[in-house]
TrEMBL record:
Species for this entry: Umezawaea tangerina
Coiled coil: none
A Pfam family recorded for this sequence: CRISPR_assoc
SUPFAM superfamilies named among the record's database cross-references: CRISPR-associated protein
Protein name as catalogued: CRISPR-associated Cse3 family protein
Domain of life, source organism: Bacteria
SMART domains: CRISPR_assoc
Length: 266
């Protein structure tokens, strides 16, 4: 078994049973004309002072538009992107604005978190889409407390995939043990470890309904995702900051990859 990142460097989700490729961070950096040593999103953001924003949206789950979006993950992606300016260059808008998002279900309904390099304008959302004004704040206070050895509580919805070496086909980990192993491997890549808690790693994977949608009548999208919650310990400050800003794993356009962290409660 080979992790997808080791055999395919471009992003991918399943579209009509086929892998659809999306630009990598390096592709986007090249399109922006960034020098190689500034290829990472957090490195670039810190060096030239770009602010990263985190929006919290209280969703009205009775909204007709939200019910439409909830049934079609591509419509939800388009609704999120309506808050950002159109891009005329070849770089896709989501990558250009460094947009990540996640939809959480709470006792009070749905909350959507949207992270971006560009400050969003949520006034473009349909009337009645939110139950309260959007909250937008800079992410830098979160990034500033990230230091090696710091223990943080985290939550992420991710698309845990692997690549079959012989066929090069991308598959999804469905067993909880394999899903946790996938996240541990990602930690080695992104500057964190999952500490032990009792008999195993301090993380709980839980399945969520398969994310489905259509770009058009002929193009179906399917994303199998898992919600991970637990604790991590930072081992590499810059690598972890880049993971927070750039996201982890695949299907970032469709609600995967955004990791939320806060100080662990003693």
């Amino acid at each position: 078994m080979t992790d997808l990142d080791e055999c395919d460097t471009a992003g991918a989700v399943e579209v009509d049973g086929r892998q659809q490729q999306f630009p990598t961070t390096q592709d986007v950096s090249a399109a922006r004309g960034l020098p190689p040593h500034l290829s990472g999103p957090i490195d670039y953001a810190y060096r030239i002072g770009i602010v990263v924003f985190l929006s919290t949206l209280a969703i009205n789950d009775r909204s007709r538009e939200f019910r439409r979006d909830h049934a079609n993950i591509h419509d939800m992606h388009r609704t999120v992107m309506s808050a950002f300016p159109n891009i005329t260059e070849s770089t896709p808008a989501r990558q250009a604005h460094a947009v990540l998002w996640r939809l959480d279900s709470t006792n009070d309904g749905y909350v959507q978190y949207v992270q971006s390099r560009t400050e969003p304008d949520w006034g473009h959302l349909p009337a009645g889409h939110l139950t309260a004004p959007a909250e937008v704040r800079p992410l830098r206070p979160v990034l500033d407390v990230v230091e090696p050895g710091r223990k943080l509580a985290f939550r992420i919805v991710a698309n845990p995939t692997w690549c079959e070496a012989k066929s090069r086909k991308r598959l999804v980990h469905r067993e909880p043990e394999r899903q946790v192993e996938w996240l541990i491997r990602k930690g080695r890549q992104h500057g964190f470890v999952i500490p032990d808690a009792g008999p195993g790693p301090d993380v709980e994977p839980s399945p969520i309904p398969t994310l489905v949608g259509r770009k058009n009548a002929a193009t179906k999208i399917t994303v199998e995702a898992v919600r991970f919650e637990g604790h991590l310990v930072v081992t590499d400050r810059e690598a972890f900051r880049e993971a927070v800003v750039g996201g982890i794993g695949r299907a970032k356009a469709y609600g995967c990859g955004l990791i939320s962290v806060e100080p662990a409660v003693a």
